Amino acid sequence: MKFIKARLDYLFSSTKGLVLVAIAMIALTSAIWGMLSGPLAEMGIRDVVINTLGMDMVPAEREGRIIILYHAIAMAVVAIETYLINGLLKIKPLLKTVINGLITVGYIVTMIFGLGFAYFGHNWAFHGMYIAGLTLIFAAGVLLIIALWPWDKDVRQPDKDYARTRSGVDLERVAFFATAVTTVISALFGAIPGSFFGNGFEVFLAENIIRFPEKSTMEYSIIGHLHIMLALIAVMITLIIGRWLNFKGILHKIAMPLMILGTIILNLGVWGVVTPLEPIAHMVIYVGATPSMLAALLLLIWSWRMLIRSGTAKIAKPTLLQKLKALVQDPLKFGPTWQMLFMNFSTSGLGIFMAVKLDEIFRVWPAREERIELTGHWHALSLVIATIILMYYGDISGLKGRVRQVFGWAIIFFSDLALAAITFFEMKRLFVTEAEQQPLVNGLMLAVDTGLALLLLLLATLMVWRLIDLFKKKGRWSEEKEQELDQEVVS
Amino acid sequence: MKRLWLVLLSVSLLLSACSPVDLAAPMPSVVTGIDPNSWAQVPSGDFYYGQYNVVENTSDYEIMVTDVTTSQYADYLNAALLSGTIKIGDGEITGYYPGDTFTGKKHEERIDAGDWLYIPLNDPSQHILYDGTSFSPEEGYEDHPMTMVTWFGARGYCEYFGYRLPTEKEWEKAARGTDTRAYPWGDEIQRSNANFYASRDPFEDMKSFGSRTTPVGFFNGTTYPDGYVTLDSRSPYGLFDMAGNVWQWTADVYPGMHYRMLRGGSKDTYEMDLRIFVRNNATPTYFSPGVGFRCVK
Description:
Radius of gyration of chain A: 22 Å
Structural class of chain A: mainly alpha
Largest interface: A-B, 39 and 54 residues
Order of helices and strands of chain A: HHHHHHHHHHHHHHHHHH
CATH class of the largest domain in chain A: Mainly Alpha
Number of helices of chain A: 18
Order of helices and strands of chain B: HEEEEHEEEEEHHEEEE
Largest sheet of chain A: none
Radius of gyration of chain B: 20 Å
Helix content of chain A: over 70%
Low-confidence stretches of chain B: none
Strand content of chain A: under 5%
Oligomer: heterodimer
Helix content of chain B: 10-25%
Number of helices of chain B: 4
Low-confidence stretches of chain A: none
């Protein structure tokens, strides 16, 4: 009993334990539900999984199932970000405990009962629990806003190396605060139309209605919601990585106001789609996205410079090669910002290209082809975010030496292989006709599937390693139980 | 050395993607026994429309039991060429369309009165051959659905014979009947029900040329001489290929958008797109090896 209690205590009351549980939940979900589509479906494994687990896959309910699946995974990611924020920033202990408790119960209930409802027959009690789970997460978000309140005297920033106001208000904390506030508000843009459509069970996927000129306010709200939530998860992980790496100096002072401004404008633009300002909403979104992405670029520049400086500290006049070597010597610290840079190829660049050439190229293709681009680019962004989280987790797990190198580079290489291939897959119609595409599709899908499969294998290895560790009396878990993330910020 | 082998393996795998596709790969010859000139009667009355089963109704009409075949389209082109209702241009066939009302909505494009593309002639995926005087179907594709045809070309065919394209409602009722089934034959789909992506029918080879169309009415419950077993996948009114094989153009012109709706899924889509209520759309000038049509009267 003591054995179990000690492990549960670690898993559900320490930041590292909570993050591990959430990653394990996502890994398990990805492993099972990943078999329902793509190459495994083509191979017939999908049918085996459905029959073995007794899933109830009514064809007309596919869209509803997918929406619940997205939410189940996204809530675990939001929980991870919340734990990381609570571990990295100065938060009142009581609030920290309550927020972590609420969001943990919230996402686990959402996942278990949401997926239970969607895939295993429609037990309405499960649906109620799913909604209750989401509500708990929302409540945790509101409390996080309170906890992050940046104008309290005891959370002022005394160090002039960081972005702050004259009175000492920590602008990085303001950025966290602004992102948390806008996330909670943006959640309502999904919750309200979700109730509206859910009441009649007329769910839809945004990518399926994108070309229809007349959309209702509720439909616009859904489209805005899914875009902004993912964008805010990306903004939050950028801030988290900045805090972990101890982003500071002049670039920090420029980046934080940009991030605050960008986040607020971006949200105003997205919220604007449900108002009469819809025709100009996209322009506002572009205006807001620019400073946010610029802030991320400043983090990248700063972190790469920091990695080069620390890696060449003992060399009087480092050569370019030595600088490059220093930059990439720690894949777990280099990787997150590299992935942000790579995202510009797989997500942002593609998105901008689509926006510029929409009528000229993409809207000439059938809607189903455009759908591949739409779903592809936000799946790609999700993967980028997931890999960044994994790299940070690799660091806080204490990976060192060769294992750290293999783990870090494997994440970067496998995910970027998949991302690059999927980006070309999305754009394939620019290079090849439908009749002649099969060899190219086969090659690209092989690259995508190989990259994703190896990435999942790596994740599985990590999870098994952590599981084995839990059985050890003095395993890594026993040390992690007492550790907190703010003590491990890069100095 | 190990790294070198890994790199070489990766490069060779990627290079294999560059090999050209043999568009003239041998096509299995089968006789489905389904007459593409036959029509099915759909009675007037209510039916469940769309994913959420909204009750709608139609008047009675007749609809082609199969998609229009390449042979039928070649015959049409020959007749239309003689009567002067089509024009042969620079590697393409065009015909007149009276135009749509333009409302100036965002992304809407003008479809003015004039000659519009029916089919391209020089595209390697085109199975209609033109020898300078007459049209003929490419050998092996005679009873396959006519593809590489624009919405204008599909409409032109139907109009020439006094028919028309089905509206979305007519198409869906013909596919579904009066219950709420997801596929024309019921609520479950198996590989032997229809031609869809990686459905492993004898016309497909995912390692080389990928998916190809199946002859119209192929999935009719027959076990073919090569041993391939099909399930009888006709709709409640006896229509074939209302799920998979080729997307089918429908008639509706909606205000504020120039896109035309496509229904039924195709050889290139996963089974989720074969669900009766799934809507796809494209510009009316779009053509593809995975898009065809059928008519109503």
